[in-house]
Fold this protein.
Amino acid sequence: MSNYTAPAAPTATPAAPAPPPEPAQDGPPYLPQTAILGGVPTLALDGPICAVFLAFFLGGAILNMTIYQTNRRHRYKFLFSALLFGFCMARILALTMRLVWAAYPTNISVAIASQIFTAAGVLLLFVTNLVFTRRILRAYHPFFGWHPLVTHAFNLLVVLLAAVLLLVISATVQSFFTLDAPARAADRAIQLAAAAFLAAVAGLPLPAAAAALLAPRRTRIDRFGDGAFRTKFRLLLATAALLFAGAALRAGAAFHPAPLRAPERWYHAKPAYYLANFGVELVVVYAYTLARFDRRFYVPDGSRAPGHYSCAAAAEYGGSAAAVAAALAEFEKGGGGGGVSPGASKRSSAWSGRWSSAAAGKGGRWPR
């Protein structure tokens, strides 16, 4: 009888657990095919970050509404304080929707709403910088800045911003509700064109303000607001550079998508997402608010032609009608023969005559 024992059969190595299956999708909305900027939020990581931003944006909303109401009680109208209040409230809503998405990560409808609210709010800051750029251009080069073509170009740009926003919202929503390849290709083309356009608009104040500063002037500066103009330039250029950096990063991420299951790229990571969106915008809001942009970029009501910024400011502060009319005439005289638009000159003269007549019945003082 043999004592030989057959060796035991080798034990099989247990297989790694299979990844959880994708949720079955019988209909729309469908999961995106590429990585999302910032990824899918989680309460453990995104919750504290969103809470901090919520607190700061709430503080910005309170500050700007307080400034707006205080100014309004003194009959000092500066609507951009109210606009920044609205922007902060929009950002509070966007962050709240991101927290809801973190609580319900498989709810694609909440994800769509969160992305739309995040993308839409920043346009208010773009419009603010465009208006401030136009004011600086009109101050340094009044007869060019007040030219009807330049005025219409700025107005058209604001209209295009609103139209692009509507197109992006439509394309984003449709991309979640269709599997048709041509339709998705059209949606992506709209999103890429919009991202490039928004980045260009965000950066437009940089060359425009630089050109206004460096181009030779034919008149004296038509000053507005409080403080030195170099501070206005620095504030505008700094905020425009920050907004351009954020828009450029978002555009770069749109032009270089990553597959949904591929390793995360740096521009899709959460630090890039929060810095390019909420971080940049928070710095811009507080930079304008704490620098009292309601004083620095204020222009008097009724300004419609070259010379009105500084002359109407004198009117609001009670300067004599004769002195302000003389200042306006001197400003027009200093414009140089070829630089004065006939239409602008007529508007300035009519404005001066109307205010002078009104002042005549008030003891030679400008009406308040």
